[in-house]
Amino acid sequence: MFSIQTNSPTTANSSRSNTELFSFMISGTSYSPSKAFIEFARDFFESLAKNDYGAALGGLDARGKQWNRQKLASSIGAATAGQRLSTCIGITQSASPILTEIGQGVYSLQHRLPVAGRWAKPYAVFLFTQKLRSGYFYVTLEEICY
Predict the structure, then answer these.
(1) For residues 96 and 112, is the Cβ–Cβ distance under 8 A?
(2) pTM here?
């Protein structure tokens, strides 16, 4: 489970849900962030496997790339030939995640998608940006690749 800290609303656009108005952050450490980042990605996938798009999208920073249920489902469907994500629980093979520090306090994580009870070739790219002078990271989903 992650410590989540919310900031004040970024915009006052009444057509957006309350979840979209706030920036969410996960706690981590810039010294060894991979465990927290991989756990975030797997929690994100678990939410999608349970068809809980609200929980998955609610963990992403509203200031980053904008995703909604339809756009995310379409991207995953295109990457997986129409298959839904499965649970990560019980997958014994390695997902072979790739974590790259692309700048001070900025990390990119490529993590394979769970499909049909295994780690498939398609992957998600998350961007983790550290809030200045803190142990918290903003998280954006950059793309779903295949």
Answers:
(1) yes
(2) 0.79
